[in-house]
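Database export, one record per block. Field names are fixed; values are copied verbatim from the stored entry.
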Amino acid sequence: MLKINISKTGNGEELRKTLNSLESEGLISSEQSKKITSELDKLIDDLSRDHGKSFRVTCAGVYNSGKSSLLNALTDSEHFQVGDVPTTAAIDELTVDGLTYVDTPGLNANDMDNATAIKAFKDADLIIFVSNLMNGGLNSAEAKYLTALSEILGGKENLRRQTLFVMSNLHQTPDGQAPEISAEHRGNIEKAFGFAPEDIMLYDAVTYKTGVSTNQKALIKASGIPALKKKISERAETVSDNSDTISGDRISASESALSESLSALLDGLTKKLPNADTKLDKAAVQAVEKKCEKLINDIISGIEPISPTDGMDVLLYPINRNLSPFHGESSESAAKRRIREKLSSAYNRRESVLREAASRVAEMIMSYNVYQRTDGDYYYAINRRAANAVMECNKMFREVGISLPTSAIADIEVVPSLCNTSERELRDIISEDVIEYSGYYTLDSYADYCDVEEEYAGSGMFGRDKYTYGCYNLYKGAEEMIKDMKGTFNSNVNSAWRQTVSNSQTFCNKVKAELESRKTAMIQAAESAVANSGDDKETENLKKAIAELEGFLKG
């Protein structure tokens, strides 16, 4: 991937001039110029971080949270101005024992104060975020402040790594409430920003000041300031490279954003270049356009979503098994008993057959709820057909001298949304209520569907006619069992398929839309190339603009 040539960027004036020239010549839009200029300003701002020689501890927080009082306690001085209204209009700092303590404007100071604070945060090695115990846990103003701070530092993870959370006015809080408020503060931070601070230090600057003036060591210790000083020293010793890492991450992100925009701009300008020194064959290009349009349209028409199956075929054979006709029974009642005996096997198999059928359908559904980049995968196969069509179009356009833009010929891979229902849950959905519903019907009710047939068997010993009895339509009883199960079962199967089918429909629509977009981009690029081929003046201007932009990028 191309990166920004930092040494070439400098203060950005050369790139600004290039962008202004491109905009004035109508080669880029005003919106493009503004976007790239904004990304350039951010990169330059990130590069301007002042590391300094000492470890910089920067205090942050809404006004009246106790920042300045804390800094006076940490530095054992009265250097930082204290007041009930926003007092810090500029950066104020003091270096003590190799640590530089920095006070910043509160959130409610004016816009210039906020801009001033941004630089201080970017220069910081450690940020102490001060909250007032008297105000309870994290409030909306502090959440807004931390959100802005997170963006300045380059994300929530950097906020976590670089910030020490503290709470003031420990001894002005009602007895026993400080730990509860601190715990609530930690929970609110985790809820809002996705991490719980390892430590939330509690302190009281007034107690510390009193302890120092009266030389009471117990008060000094109880104030929490010595513990906080120790924590800051530990962080200074163990996290010496942390802020540089975070700053580097922020610079990399800004560099990537600007590089991506410049690369896209170069790609757009390159598309406008003629594809050959001589004029392109318009008729040949148009013929390829038609071929590619037909190819992609054929692929689009062949992309179909999943078609669910009702699954009932898997029920038929197991229930009908061993239901062959019989004859030769001596009486009608004996034949009816035989019918019940034969049907009882099917009747008793219903639940096991249903469970097996539900398992087969659930397994089939689950096979469409994985995405594997291997042959045989439903989603992968569609992606490959789409990608191969694009590759074939690119090949045809190259043969007539057209170089398509990267965005039009990049590999197509639409990632499907997959149902998170487990196979066991699907089985339960499919089999739900089926047995209970069909259980309303007794074995005798199914036996009644089977007819007893009387057959003449000759004359008996005393000249009486003899008859035997049998049944030739046992299948009717089984068919009624299937019928009673089928409606609920099929309804459940369709319900189990519903989300997967919907996901496949969405996936297919996205692939189709991507192909339509690629088709349009290819044809537009080809027509533009034909229109611009042989225009020496425009070609020269484009080449000059491209060369200037390439100077700001390196491989």
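Remark 1: The chain has a mean pLDDT of 82.
Remark 2: The first strand starts at residue 3 and ends at 4.
End of record.
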